Amino acid sequence: MSKLIYLDNSATTYPKPEEVYLFMDEFYRKHGVNPGRSGFDAAIETEEIVHSTRAMLTELFNGDDPNRLTFSYNASDSLNMILQGLAEKGDHIVTTFLEHNSVLRPLHHLELDGIAEVTHIHFDKNGYVHPDDIKKAIKKNTKMVVVNHSSNVIGTIQPLEEIGKICKETGVYFIVDASQSAGAVPVDMKKMGIDVVCFTGHKCLMGPTGIGGSYVMDDVPVRYTRFGGTGVRSAVKTHLEEFPYRLECGTLNIMGVAGLNAGVRWINEQGIENLHKKEMKLWEKLKNGLQDIEGVTTYCANGTENQNPVISFNVKGFEAGDVGTILDVDYNIACRTGLHCAPKVHEGIGTIDVHGSVRLSIGPFNIENHIDEAITAVKDVAGIKN
């Protein structure tokens, strides 16, 4: 069997840089102990890695205080804590049709529980939300605006700076899901007016699964919704108010933090802009190749500006899942099919009734030959019925 052509990087980037594998192995062999709980050397050195990772990510997002950078399992975990920790009875929340279920489901449960009312803003034919539509949706009781920076289905990058300015002018909190953008394109919390950014480690930050987190600006009153051990001030009966403990309890995923540390260092060495430029060059070739195939429909795939290297398409006469199976079995190409945990995106592009689309997503280790083979494979599939 030929070597796997991996084009499912929006789910999880693969492979990881060799530096990530090596550092995780070395770190855990030497420092696989609890950080901040004891005074022996290994524990202190482990805490140093945890703090340095907080500091690197704080700098990446242009925050100020590394203690405001807290770790979790992933972006979904952090978004749950942030949304539930901010929402109060009678609140109104504005979000978009671009959201992943990591936002849609927590907000839906807030509605079901009678806590908040939620308004969803549509995106245009090119896949972008208009800031004015968000502004029009804001009401007197609007607590927050929640926006997916980059869609995991169509790859469009939203105008966060304009939306953030509106949020600041109207006094509502601006929450950003950066699952697909952190490590891929700049996320500047100050410039973009972001109050909370939530991220995951296993995508563009090049870390392992099971690690993510959030950065919360100073004046955002997120309540803690989990309670437990912090390793400090153990005699206090209630969970600690101060960060990072407010949003962390129990032992951290130290192995995950180490991998994230190595991943961020690798990204900084390569340069986010350099990585993105290379990936978008491949994306443009893929887009043009797919759009030249008779019977293939792409969705919201236009120019390279404000776009991540993600493309969704369907082949006339085929279910998306069948196309994915053929690409896997006959061509050893890994992709993702279906609704991609983002049903409202598929409502917006008109694919909800045909069970979604085929998604190809490019990562740092894809090469031009991968794109050539993917185009040829889709052309072969399309030729079966067209």
Structural account:
The model has no long low-confidence stretch (mean pLDDT 95). The chain is globular and about 70 Å long. It is α/β, with parallel strands linked by helices. It has a seven-stranded mixed β-sheet, with helices on both faces. Strands 9-10-13-12 form a four-stranded antiparallel β-sheet, with helices on one face. The longest helix is centred in the N-terminal third of the chain and has 20 residues, at 41-60. It has helices spanning 18-31, 41-60, 75-86, 101-112, 131-137, 160-170, 189-192, 254-270, 272-291, 320-331, 343-349, 368-385, and strands spanning 5-6, 69-72, 91-96, 116-121, 142-148, 173-177, 196-200, 212-216, 296-298, 310-315, 333-334, 336-338, 357-361. It is built from twelve helices and 13 strands. It has two domains: 5-16 and 271-385, Aspartate Aminotransferase, domain 1, CATH 3.90.1150.10; 18-269, Type I PLP-dependent aspartate aminotransferase-like (Major domain) (Aspartate Aminotransferase, domain 2), CATH 3.40.640.
- CATH fold type of the largest domain: Aspartate Aminotransferase, domain 2
Report Rg. 21 Å
Distance between the termini: 28 Å
Biggest beta sheet attributes: 7 strands, mixed
Average pLDDT for all residues? 95
What is the CATH architecture annotation of the largest domain? 3-Layer(aba) Sandwich
| Strand residue content | 15-25%
